[in-house]
Amino acid sequence: MYRNFRMVSYVVFGRGCYNQTKDILGQQRDKEKSDMVYLVDDVFKGAEFGDSIPLQGDDMLIWVNVDDEPKTKLVDALVEQIKGAMDKNPAGIVGVGGGSAMDLSKAVSVMMTNEGSSAEYQGYDLPKNPSLYHAAIPTLSGTGAEVSRTCVLTGPEKKLGINSDYSVFDQIILDPELIRGAPDEQRFYTGMDCYIHCIESLEGTFLNEFSKSYGQKSLELCREVFLNKRTEESEDKLMMASYCGGMSIAYSQVGVCHALSYGLAYVLGTHHGIGNAIVFDYLDEFYPEGVKEFRIMLDKAGVELPRGLCANLTEEQFEKMINVSLAMELLWENALGKDWKKIMTREKAREMFERM
Ligand code: NAD
Ligand code: ZN
Fold first, then answer.
1. CATH architecture of 184-355
2. 3-state secondary structure of 279
3. Which of 152, 172, 274 to mutate to test the pocket of ligand 1 (most atoms within 8 A of CB)?
């Protein structure tokens, strides 16, 4: 059976296209549902861009803090806040920010129409009701969250997304001007998430021509962005690299790096981009060419990777880290094949974490 997956319905791309937001969202407003809820990364609070959000009528703007990556608790609290403030469902939810703000808006749009806690929907195809209309305005590129069918959440028991057709955005507004101001180091880490998506997809056993076509294009763009001098076009390229990288893994999977980095994230709270970069630097035996090129990019960006993350872990923390990581079965199978358990034993995973 081939997977029949949903894609983003509308895409607008180009420098300055953010200025069309009001018109684009206006098409979703009617007498019944007239208000939008914007979930905006609070890094823009008090900044010119934050002030430029085109609020109309009774639209709600909620600043979201992403110092911690999205938790099910925060999603539930946001849904409660919106329901408490509005007497009927809004016309839509708009996420403005990086992967975290985008994932929050996906999760909130699903939970506005589905009962219970978001923690009950961490998994595959669990939501029963279609989500509210939702749109994304990325301000950071690399995760591919703008095109993927998941929104990654940390819950009481696991770190796992709401993987559902209902998570997919109805509209994405891709304006390269909006990612220009991201701090260099963050731009690099989130960009490397994209680069690693490409390597893990292209080197994986699940690869097909669909994934390969997007993965190769994304990799080419990543190389232009991170191996060459920054130019006028760099942000356009990075934004499209993220889009294509996300499309590539839609039909394949990520691999060793993401599986190990999920373990770090769960136990230590390490953020996705930086966690992947830390792990990738230890993966020569799995992705020799990719790691070599990654180090050149790292050097060019002048970024120093943190070390010694696992130096003071307790036995219990190591066990948890290994459990979380080895539970990512599809990722391991994509990376190492059906017999992956013979290669990535608990001892091997432990030894790798100990080096980080
Ligand atoms: P992020 O959204 O967590 O943001 C990182 C930091 O950059 C934050 O401090 C944020 O405030 C700041 N920031 C964002 N845009 C900025 C801008 N233009 N100027 C200044 N600061 C800015 O980072 P990310 O790497 O984009 O996203 C990581 C998140 O995405 C994680 O939660 C991860 O789980 C998730 N993710 C989701 C998918 C998916 O398919 N849904 C895929 C990969 C990662
Ligand atoms: Zn990733």
1. Up-down Bundle (1.20)
2. helix
3. 152
